[in-house]
Amino acid sequence: MPDSRMMNKNGMVSVIQTRIRTDPFKNHYDLVGKELGRGKFAVVKKCIEKKTGKEHAAKFLRKRRKGEDCRMDLINEIAVLESAKSNPYIISLHEVYETTSEIILVLECAAGGEIFNQCVADNDEAFTEQDVIRLARQILMGVSCLHHNNVVHLDLKPQNILLTSARPLGDIRIVDFGLSRRMDNMKELREILGTPEYVAPEVLNYEPISTATDMWSIGVLAYVMLTGESPFLGNDKQETFLNISQVNVDYSQDVFEGVSSLAIDFIKSLLVKNPRNRATAEECLKHPWLSGHPHTPLLSSHLPSLEEPVASQSESEPEPDSPAPT
Ligand code: ADP
Ligand code: MG
Protein backbone atom coordinates (compact mmCIF):
# COMPACT_ATOMS: atom_id res chain seq x y z
CA MET A 1 0.00 0.00 0.00
CA PRO A 2 1.61 3.31 -0.94
CA ASP A 3 1.92 5.84 1.87
CA SER A 4 1.84 9.60 1.57
CA ARG A 5 5.60 9.86 0.95
CA MET A 6 5.16 7.90 -2.24
CA MET A 7 2.66 10.36 -3.59
CA ASN A 8 3.09 13.78 -5.04
CA LYS A 9 0.63 16.56 -4.33
CA ASN A 10 -1.60 15.67 -7.24
CA GLY A 11 -2.44 12.26 -5.81
CA MET A 12 -0.12 10.42 -8.16
CA VAL A 13 1.60 7.32 -6.80
CA SER A 14 5.30 7.11 -7.65
CA VAL A 15 6.32 3.73 -6.25
CA ILE A 16 5.46 0.48 -7.98
CA GLN A 17 6.14 -3.18 -7.36
CA THR A 18 6.19 -4.36 -10.96
CA ARG A 19 9.67 -4.84 -12.43
CA ILE A 20 10.12 -2.64 -15.48
CA ARG A 21 11.88 -4.70 -18.12
CA THR A 22 14.32 -3.04 -20.48
CA ASP A 23 15.07 -6.04 -22.70
CA PRO A 24 13.24 -5.84 -26.04
CA PHE A 25 9.47 -6.47 -25.89
CA LYS A 26 9.72 -8.09 -29.33
CA ASN A 27 11.97 -10.84 -27.93
CA HIS A 28 9.05 -12.02 -25.81
CA TYR A 29 5.92 -11.12 -27.81
CA ASP A 30 4.68 -11.27 -31.40
CA LEU A 31 2.29 -8.53 -32.45
CA VAL A 32 -0.75 -10.00 -34.22
CA GLY A 33 -3.73 -8.61 -36.05
CA LYS A 34 -4.67 -5.02 -36.26
CA GLU A 35 -4.91 -2.45 -33.51
CA LEU A 36 -7.33 -3.14 -30.64
CA GLY A 37 -7.85 0.55 -30.11
CA ARG A 38 -6.23 3.88 -29.53
CA GLY A 39 -6.67 6.94 -27.39
CA LYS A 40 -5.02 10.34 -27.26
CA PHE A 41 -1.53 9.13 -26.35
CA ALA A 42 -1.71 5.36 -26.59
CA VAL A 43 -1.97 2.63 -29.18
CA VAL A 44 -3.15 -0.80 -28.06
CA LYS A 45 -2.25 -3.90 -30.08
CA LYS A 46 -2.94 -7.59 -29.67
CA CYS A 47 0.16 -9.70 -28.99
CA ILE A 48 1.04 -13.31 -28.24
CA GLU A 49 3.52 -14.19 -25.53
CA LYS A 50 6.09 -16.50 -27.15
CA LYS A 51 6.73 -18.48 -23.96
CA THR A 52 3.09 -19.36 -23.28
CA GLY A 53 1.24 -18.77 -26.58
CA LYS A 54 -1.19 -16.61 -24.60
CA GLU A 55 -2.94 -13.59 -26.03
CA HIS A 56 -2.45 -10.17 -24.40
CA ALA A 57 -3.04 -6.51 -25.18
CA ALA A 58 0.05 -4.29 -25.37
CA LYS A 59 -0.59 -0.62 -24.60
CA PHE A 60 2.20 1.54 -26.05
CA LEU A 61 2.50 4.84 -24.19
CA ARG A 62 4.80 7.66 -25.26
CA LYS A 63 6.87 9.06 -22.38
CA ARG A 64 6.98 12.55 -23.89
CA ARG A 65 3.77 14.34 -24.67
CA LYS A 66 3.62 17.86 -26.03
CA GLY A 67 7.31 18.21 -25.19
CA GLU A 68 6.83 17.23 -21.54
CA ASP A 69 8.16 14.22 -19.67
CA CYS A 70 5.14 12.14 -18.60
CA ARG A 71 6.93 9.13 -17.13
CA MET A 72 5.47 9.84 -13.68
CA ASP A 73 1.95 9.74 -15.04
CA LEU A 74 2.67 6.32 -16.50
CA ILE A 75 4.13 5.06 -13.22
CA ASN A 76 0.94 6.26 -11.53
CA GLU A 77 -1.15 4.31 -14.08
CA ILE A 78 0.88 1.16 -13.27
CA ALA A 79 0.50 1.76 -9.50
CA VAL A 80 -3.28 1.98 -9.81
CA LEU A 81 -3.43 -1.24 -11.84
CA GLU A 82 -1.34 -2.91 -9.12
CA SER A 83 -3.63 -1.69 -6.36
CA ALA A 84 -6.66 -3.34 -7.98
CA LYS A 85 -4.89 -6.57 -8.90
CA SER A 86 -7.27 -8.85 -7.05
CA ASN A 87 -10.44 -7.45 -8.60
CA PRO A 88 -11.75 -9.43 -11.59
CA TYR A 89 -13.45 -6.39 -13.15
CA ILE A 90 -10.29 -4.30 -13.40
CA ILE A 91 -8.03 -5.23 -16.32
CA SER A 92 -5.02 -7.14 -15.07
CA LEU A 93 -1.44 -6.08 -15.70
CA HIS A 94 0.92 -8.85 -16.79
CA GLU A 95 4.26 -7.11 -17.49
CA VAL A 96 5.82 -3.71 -18.18
CA TYR A 97 8.58 -2.85 -20.69
CA GLU A 98 10.42 0.42 -21.19
CA THR A 99 12.32 1.75 -24.20
CA THR A 100 13.94 5.15 -24.64
CA SER A 101 10.69 6.64 -25.91
CA GLU A 102 7.90 4.39 -24.64
CA ILE A 103 6.44 2.40 -21.78
CA ILE A 104 4.61 -0.76 -22.84
CA LEU A 105 1.93 -2.18 -20.55
CA VAL A 106 1.22 -5.83 -21.27
CA LEU A 107 -2.40 -6.23 -20.20
CA GLU A 108 -4.99 -8.98 -20.15
CA CYS A 109 -6.76 -8.85 -23.52
CA ALA A 110 -10.46 -7.93 -23.39
CA ALA A 111 -11.43 -9.44 -26.72
CA GLY A 112 -15.04 -8.19 -26.77
CA GLY A 113 -14.05 -4.56 -27.29
CA GLU A 114 -15.64 -1.41 -25.91
CA ILE A 115 -19.22 -1.43 -24.57
CA PHE A 116 -19.47 1.73 -26.67
CA ASN A 117 -20.25 -0.44 -29.71
CA GLN A 118 -23.34 -1.99 -28.09
CA CYS A 119 -24.42 1.35 -26.63
CA VAL A 120 -24.85 2.82 -30.09
CA ALA A 121 -25.96 -0.44 -31.79
CA ASP A 122 -29.31 -1.10 -33.44
CA ASN A 123 -32.03 -2.78 -31.41
CA ASP A 124 -31.15 -6.42 -32.02
CA GLU A 125 -27.52 -5.87 -31.00
CA ALA A 126 -28.13 -3.38 -28.21
CA PHE A 127 -28.03 -4.39 -24.53
CA THR A 128 -31.24 -5.57 -22.91
CA GLU A 129 -32.07 -4.22 -19.46
CA GLN A 130 -31.09 -7.62 -18.01
CA ASP A 131 -27.67 -7.28 -19.67
CA VAL A 132 -27.26 -3.77 -18.27
CA ILE A 133 -28.21 -4.97 -14.78
CA ARG A 134 -25.52 -7.67 -14.88
CA LEU A 135 -22.86 -5.38 -16.40
CA ALA A 136 -23.69 -2.44 -14.10
CA ARG A 137 -23.19 -4.70 -11.07
CA GLN A 138 -19.76 -5.68 -12.41
CA ILE A 139 -18.78 -2.06 -13.14
CA LEU A 140 -19.86 -1.10 -9.62
CA MET A 141 -17.91 -3.97 -8.04
CA GLY A 142 -14.79 -2.81 -9.90
CA VAL A 143 -15.31 0.85 -9.02
CA SER A 144 -16.15 0.00 -5.43
CA CYS A 145 -12.76 -1.76 -5.17
CA LEU A 146 -11.00 1.34 -6.54
CA HIS A 147 -12.89 3.63 -4.15
CA HIS A 148 -12.13 1.29 -1.26
CA ASN A 149 -8.44 1.88 -2.07
CA ASN A 150 -9.12 5.65 -2.25
CA VAL A 151 -8.54 5.65 -6.00
CA VAL A 152 -10.77 7.65 -8.34
CA HIS A 153 -10.82 6.64 -12.01
CA LEU A 154 -11.97 10.03 -13.39
CA ASP A 155 -12.47 8.79 -16.97
CA LEU A 156 -15.33 6.28 -16.80
CA LYS A 157 -16.99 6.21 -20.22
CA PRO A 158 -18.08 3.52 -22.72
CA GLN A 159 -14.68 3.59 -24.46
CA ASN A 160 -12.94 2.62 -21.22
CA ILE A 161 -15.29 -0.21 -20.26
CA LEU A 162 -14.42 -3.34 -22.23
CA LEU A 163 -15.93 -6.80 -22.55
CA THR A 164 -14.21 -10.18 -22.34
CA SER A 165 -16.39 -11.20 -25.31
CA ALA A 166 -19.13 -9.46 -27.28
CA ARG A 167 -21.16 -12.43 -28.52
CA PRO A 168 -22.13 -14.15 -26.38
CA LEU A 169 -21.98 -11.18 -24.08
CA GLY A 170 -19.12 -11.65 -21.61
CA ASP A 171 -17.96 -9.75 -18.56
CA ILE A 172 -16.72 -6.24 -17.84
CA ARG A 173 -13.11 -5.10 -17.65
CA ILE A 174 -12.43 -1.50 -16.64
CA VAL A 175 -9.39 -0.02 -18.42
CA ASP A 176 -7.48 3.26 -18.82
CA PHE A 177 -6.16 4.51 -15.49
CA GLY A 178 -4.34 7.38 -17.18
CA LEU A 179 -6.31 10.02 -15.25
CA SER A 180 -6.74 8.07 -12.01
CA ARG A 181 -5.64 9.61 -8.72
CA ARG A 182 -5.34 8.61 -5.08
CA MET A 183 -7.51 10.72 -2.84
CA ASP A 184 -6.03 10.09 0.61
CA ASN A 185 -3.47 12.33 2.31
CA MET A 186 -3.98 14.79 -0.43
CA LYS A 187 -5.00 18.35 -0.56
CA GLU A 188 -8.12 18.90 -2.59
CA LEU A 189 -7.85 17.82 -6.16
CA ARG A 190 -9.27 20.36 -8.55
CA GLU A 191 -8.50 19.66 -12.15
CA ILE A 192 -10.25 19.78 -15.44
CA LEU A 193 -10.07 16.18 -16.54
CA GLY A 194 -12.04 13.66 -18.52
CA THR A 195 -14.37 13.68 -21.46
CA PRO A 196 -16.96 16.48 -21.62
CA GLU A 197 -20.09 14.31 -21.95
CA TYR A 198 -19.21 12.22 -18.88
CA VAL A 199 -17.72 14.74 -16.44
CA ALA A 200 -19.50 15.78 -13.27
CA PRO A 201 -20.59 19.37 -12.53
CA GLU A 202 -17.87 19.81 -9.85
CA VAL A 203 -15.18 19.12 -12.46
CA LEU A 204 -16.57 21.84 -14.73
CA ASN A 205 -16.90 24.24 -11.81
CA TYR A 206 -13.35 23.58 -10.62
CA GLU A 207 -14.67 22.30 -7.30
CA PRO A 208 -13.11 19.42 -5.32
CA ILE A 209 -13.08 16.01 -6.95
CA SER A 210 -13.96 12.89 -4.95
CA THR A 211 -15.12 9.31 -5.43
CA ALA A 212 -18.58 10.83 -6.06
CA THR A 213 -17.16 12.26 -9.30
CA ASP A 214 -16.93 8.69 -10.67
CA MET A 215 -20.48 7.98 -9.50
CA TRP A 216 -21.82 10.77 -11.72
CA SER A 217 -20.09 9.13 -14.70
CA ILE A 218 -21.67 5.78 -13.77
CA GLY A 219 -25.06 7.51 -13.90
CA VAL A 220 -24.25 8.76 -17.39
CA LEU A 221 -23.00 5.28 -18.37
CA ALA A 222 -26.19 3.57 -17.16
CA TYR A 223 -28.28 6.14 -19.08
CA VAL A 224 -26.34 5.50 -22.29
CA MET A 225 -26.37 1.70 -21.90
CA LEU A 226 -30.14 1.64 -21.39
CA THR A 227 -31.24 4.25 -23.94
CA GLY A 228 -28.42 4.53 -26.49
CA GLU A 229 -28.51 8.29 -25.91
CA SER A 230 -25.97 10.51 -24.22
CA PRO A 231 -27.94 12.51 -21.62
CA PHE A 232 -25.99 15.77 -21.66
CA LEU A 233 -24.63 15.87 -25.21
CA GLY A 234 -25.38 19.24 -26.79
CA ASN A 235 -24.66 20.66 -30.22
CA ASP A 236 -21.35 21.99 -28.98
CA LYS A 237 -19.11 21.79 -25.89
CA GLN A 238 -20.70 24.89 -24.38
CA GLU A 239 -24.21 23.45 -24.63
CA THR A 240 -23.01 20.12 -23.16
CA PHE A 241 -21.43 21.96 -20.19
CA LEU A 242 -24.60 23.97 -19.63
CA ASN A 243 -26.73 20.79 -19.71
CA ILE A 244 -24.42 19.23 -17.10
CA SER A 245 -24.33 22.19 -14.73
CA GLN A 246 -28.11 22.53 -14.91
CA VAL A 247 -28.54 18.73 -14.64
CA ASN A 248 -30.78 18.98 -17.65
CA VAL A 249 -31.78 15.32 -18.13
CA ASP A 250 -34.64 13.88 -20.18
CA TYR A 251 -36.33 11.08 -18.22
CA SER A 252 -39.36 10.98 -20.52
CA GLN A 253 -41.14 7.83 -21.74
CA ASP A 254 -39.88 8.62 -25.25
CA VAL A 255 -36.29 8.02 -24.24
CA PHE A 256 -36.92 5.28 -21.67
CA GLU A 257 -39.44 3.20 -23.62
CA GLY A 258 -39.51 -0.34 -22.20
CA VAL A 259 -37.08 0.50 -19.37
CA SER A 260 -38.17 -0.17 -15.78
CA SER A 261 -38.91 2.64 -13.34
CA LEU A 262 -36.34 1.12 -10.97
CA ALA A 263 -33.64 1.72 -13.59
CA ILE A 264 -34.69 5.36 -13.92
CA ASP A 265 -34.71 5.71 -10.15
CA PHE A 266 -31.15 4.28 -10.07
CA ILE A 267 -29.92 6.86 -12.60
CA LYS A 268 -31.66 9.64 -10.67
CA SER A 269 -29.73 8.66 -7.53
CA LEU A 270 -26.47 9.40 -9.40
CA LEU A 271 -27.19 12.40 -11.63
CA VAL A 272 -27.42 14.70 -8.61
CA LYS A 273 -25.58 18.02 -8.69
CA ASN A 274 -24.26 17.99 -5.11
CA PRO A 275 -21.64 15.21 -4.91
CA ARG A 276 -22.49 14.62 -1.24
CA ASN A 277 -26.02 13.63 -2.17
CA ARG A 278 -25.01 11.10 -4.83
CA ALA A 279 -25.25 7.37 -4.12
CA THR A 280 -21.93 5.62 -3.41
CA ALA A 281 -20.84 2.45 -5.23
CA GLU A 282 -21.79 0.38 -2.18
CA GLU A 283 -25.22 2.01 -2.00
CA CYS A 284 -25.74 1.45 -5.73
CA LEU A 285 -25.09 -2.29 -5.33
CA LYS A 286 -27.87 -2.35 -2.73
CA HIS A 287 -30.31 -0.42 -4.95
CA PRO A 288 -33.41 -2.55 -5.69
CA TRP A 289 -32.73 -2.30 -9.45
CA LEU A 290 -29.49 -4.27 -8.96
CA SER A 291 -30.11 -6.18 -5.75
CA GLY A 292 -33.63 -7.33 -6.61
CA HIS A 293 -32.44 -9.92 -9.10
CA PRO A 294 -31.13 -12.86 -7.11
CA HIS A 295 -31.66 -15.09 -10.16
CA THR A 296 -29.52 -13.02 -12.51
CA PRO A 297 -26.07 -14.62 -12.51
CA LEU A 298 -23.26 -12.10 -12.16
CA LEU A 299 -20.80 -13.87 -14.45
CA SER A 300 -21.38 -14.67 -18.11
CA SER A 301 -20.08 -18.21 -17.53
CA HIS A 302 -23.06 -18.81 -15.25
CA LEU A 303 -25.63 -17.68 -17.80
CA PRO A 304 -27.62 -20.41 -19.54
CA SER A 305 -26.10 -21.28 -22.90
CA LEU A 306 -27.88 -20.01 -25.99
CA GLU A 307 -28.10 -23.58 -27.31
CA GLU A 308 -30.22 -24.79 -24.40
CA PRO A 309 -33.41 -22.77 -24.38
CA VAL A 310 -34.63 -22.05 -20.87
CA ALA A 311 -38.33 -21.36 -20.44
CA SER A 312 -37.95 -18.46 -18.04
CA GLN A 313 -35.48 -16.74 -20.39
CA SER A 314 -37.89 -16.51 -23.31
CA GLU A 315 -38.81 -12.99 -24.29
CA SER A 316 -42.54 -13.60 -24.23
CA GLU A 317 -42.48 -14.82 -20.64
CA PRO A 318 -40.70 -12.35 -18.41
CA GLU A 319 -39.37 -13.68 -15.12
CA PRO A 320 -41.77 -13.07 -12.26
CA ASP A 321 -39.25 -10.84 -10.51
CA SER A 322 -38.35 -8.73 -13.54
CA PRO A 323 -38.87 -5.01 -13.02
CA ALA A 324 -42.35 -3.71 -13.67
CA PRO A 325 -42.52 -1.85 -16.96
CA THR A 326 -43.40 1.80 -16.56
P1 ADP B 1 -6.04 5.97 -23.68
O1 ADP B 1 -5.48 6.32 -22.35
O2 ADP B 1 -5.18 6.47 -24.78
O3 ADP B 1 -7.49 6.31 -23.86
P2 ADP B 1 -6.89 3.20 -23.29
O4 ADP B 1 -6.27 2.43 -22.18
O5 ADP B 1 -8.27 3.70 -23.07
O6 ADP B 1 -5.90 4.38 -23.73
O7 ADP B 1 -6.86 2.30 -24.61
C1 ADP B 1 -7.36 2.82 -25.82
C2 ADP B 1 -8.33 1.82 -26.42
O8 ADP B 1 -7.66 0.58 -26.69
C3 ADP B 1 -9.52 1.43 -25.51
O9 ADP B 1 -10.57 2.36 -25.62
C4 ADP B 1 -9.87 0.05 -26.05
O10 ADP B 1 -10.63 0.15 -27.23
C5 ADP B 1 -8.51 -0.53 -26.43
N1 ADP B 1 -7.94 -1.31 -25.30
C6 ADP B 1 -7.30 -0.82 -24.22
N2 ADP B 1 -6.93 -1.80 -23.37
C7 ADP B 1 -7.35 -2.96 -23.92
C8 ADP B 1 -7.30 -4.35 -23.51
N3 ADP B 1 -6.70 -4.70 -22.37
N4 ADP B 1 -7.87 -5.28 -24.32
C9 ADP B 1 -8.46 -4.91 -25.48
N5 ADP B 1 -8.56 -3.63 -25.91
C10 ADP B 1 -8.01 -2.66 -25.16
MG1 MG C 1 -9.23 5.54 -23.01
TrEMBL record:
Keywords: Apoptosis, ATP-binding, Kinase, Nucleotide-binding, Nucleus, Phosphoprotein, Serine/threonine-protein kinase, Transferase. GO terms for biological process: apoptotic process; intracellular signal transduction; positive regulation of apoptotic process. Residues 301-326 are annotated as: Disordered. It is an enzyme of class 2 (transferase). Pfam families: Pkinase. One of its GO terms (molecular function) is protein serine/threonine kinase activity. It is found in: Nucleus. Belongs to the protein kinase superfamily. CAMK Ser/Thr protein kinase family. DAP kinase subfamily. This is Serine/threonine-protein kinase 17A.
